[in-house]
Amino acid sequence: MPTYEYECSRCGHLFEEFKPMSAPPRKRCPECRGKVNRLISGGLGIVFKGSGFYANDSRPKKQEAGSEAPAPPSDTGKSESAGNNSSTLEKDKT
User: Fold this and answer.
1) For 12-63, how does the pLDDT look when each residue is reduced to its tens digit (9 = 90+)?
2) Alpha helix (H) residue ranges in 1-94
């Protein structure tokens, strides 16, 4: 919901209202009941609230119950093969 800024043309009172865009604009000042003009403002921008925008939006889709999730690749095979390659290279140097 946006925040609307108003200024009274009679008393000069400045005030804001936080309401939905579908709500009708205010016509009278809450202080003197004079006519008000809605001011143009830049707004505050986007505000992300909650536990985290990226944690909620980039999370992988949940799989249905009963279907197996793919197994993550294991790092043990990589480290063993890297160890074997380095020992093979050392033997070749000698």
Assistant:
1) 999 999 889 899 999 999 999 999 999 987 766 776 676 665 655 555 666 6
2) 53-57, 76-93
- Is the C-alpha dihedral spanning 51, 42, 27, 16 positive or negative? positive
β-sheet bridge partners, residue 16: 5
Query: How far apart (Å, rounded) are the C-alpha atoms in residues 51 and 55?
Result: 8
Provide CB contacts within 8 A for 34, sequence distance 6+.
8, 9, 10, 11, 28
The pLDDT value recorded for residue 40 is 85
* Residues contacting residue 37 through CB under 8 Å, at least 6 positions apart: 6, 7, 9
pLDDT in the model for residue 36: 97
Domain architecture of the chain: domains with CATH: 1-43 (2.20.28)
